[in-house]
Amino acid sequence: MSRRIRVLVVDDSVVVRRLVSDVLSADPAIEVVGTAANGKVALAKIDQVNPDLITLDIEMPVMDGLQTLRELRKDHPVLPVVMFSTLTERGASATLDALELGASDYVTKPANVGSVQASMEAVREQLVPRIRGLCRHVVGVAPAAPARAAAPRPTTPAAAPAASAAPRSSRIDVVAIGASTGGPDALSTVLAALPGDLPVPVVIVQHMPPVFTRQFADRLDGKVALRVAEATTGMPVRPGLAVVAPGDYHLRFRGDARSGQVVAALDQGTPENYCRPAVDVMMRSVVDTWRGNVLAVVLTGMGSDGARGCADVVAAGGSVLVQDEASSVVWGMPGAVVAAGLAPTVLPLAQVGPAIVERVRAANPPSLPFRDVPARPAREVSLS
Fold first, then answer.
1. 123 neighbors 19 (Cβ within 8 angstroms)
2. pLDDT tens figures, 4-25
3. Which of 218, 242, 293, 299 has a C-alpha 20 to 30 A away from that of 208?
């Protein structure tokens, strides 16, 4: 027997609590079982209302969102939590802190969008699909499609590799990674397993808004052996470097005639799969640039972004591996790749990084591009 998803809404603003509650209550699959004006009240209500998911504001009096999340995770380590964030430097930093503390995902707070109706539509578009995706374990609930229709694309949907696909390449010249919901934690785990002298570049699309991607890249750079940077137009893509697509820009690549290097190229073309940056866009460009010498990796995420791109990788002779369902926050993106018959290798998150290293080492003799990896100067890095 199916039931509705039970949601506890936590925000110090009466207006926001009412707005979010009205939007969620209008969805037949969701039931708002309680609201709270601060974290202390929310923690007291959890056992009373037994929610399937909590929406949690970051800035609140008495007990803010980060304090609440720390306390919440002591007794409820897997209860889904979606943070409300602002598109500011401070908001991005606090949201990344929340993700490190165990938040499942985040949405931007409804503010300064013109009208109550526009605010409600923004919440409906961002929050409802996340709630459905994160609570797929609730009986009878299927993931919802985003509210806006996707722009038409000239390419066909992802499918199992055709018989005419190129022979499997014996080289790997680039590792291309796509992620969304749950991706920040997953990427931290994967990149931490990669050595600083990895003989190929790593290119990444993580679905995130502007400001967030730069701070995310900076944090990763301070925690892993690889160099990590938000991509800029003309940035050389070299071994030992991981580049992260900036929010609201597609990440592509081109050859630079003067330097002879591959460099990043950014644009604000039409969103694909409701996303910009999109994994599919990056994967297509990776194939255009490196042909079949590609290892594509798809990590946890909602939707199917990356499936078409992986089909292109396989057709060119490249290889694909994905994160398994058990270790994914949401198995939408990797699941779509598996369903299309494109991923012969499906691994728990902890094994993805080591598998990348093993494949790259096997495909690239030690005499190859290690000399191109610049020495990394010692420095102290703040993770806050």
1. yes
2. 999 999 999 999 999 999 999 9
3. 293
